[in-house]
Amino acid sequence: MHESSKTxxxxxxxxxxxxxxxxxxxxxxGPDIVVPQAIPFDEAQGDAQRMLDYFQAxxxxxxxxxxxxxxxxxxxxxxxxxxxxxxxxxxxxxxxPDEDLYEQGAWPSLFNADHKATFRLGKLKSWSPVxxxxxELIRGLPGSEIVDACIQDDAINRRLIKNNITELxxxxxxxxxxxxxxxxxxxxxxxPVNPLSLAFDRLENALxxxxxxxxxxxxxxxxxxxxxxx
Length: 230
Fold this sequence. Notes:
It is a single chain. This protein is an alpha/beta fold. The protein folds into two domains: 170 residues, Rossmann fold, CATH 3.40.50; 41 residues. It is 32% helix and 21% strand. Helix 2 links the parallel strand 3 and strand 4. The two termini are 36 Å apart.
């Protein structure tokens, strides 16, 4: 999936030179670290909800996390831990899935069963029972100044986005996912399936079967940058 690599393609060098200077930690990065000099922190390194067990407070110029917060059991407590790591004058750069673009009205998550929360930006109401307004969360952190907050939807085909996914839609999605896995397996053993796979993709889209566009180049996320006063 490599969401950080996809996001970096639209950030540009000016973004990196402004926010990813000094000591940087990348929480929940997996193998896709945001910049080479960042300290990686993932499951192998410990519990992302208890960062102060591993690092001193105010020890990083930038704390970055992409597509990790939605996996945390306690969103508020986790954010407080991450924020505590930021030096005065430093930055928190956080990326989470946008609940409408990614989850598409389905909860529990159809596309990632480990998601424990959904996020919105500026909406007063949500269909999700576990929804958080990311900007509101960050404003509640002591000394926080929001530098930028935006929805990133590059390469998204909005005609394929659903407002609600029914139980029947879930069944069809699971069948389509099994079909794609079977086709990938056939491709690995040298059986040409690309033309047939594309035909199935078009048919499934025409039938309105839910699609996770982020498996390709698309972004369906919120990015927020906050500076700590100091």
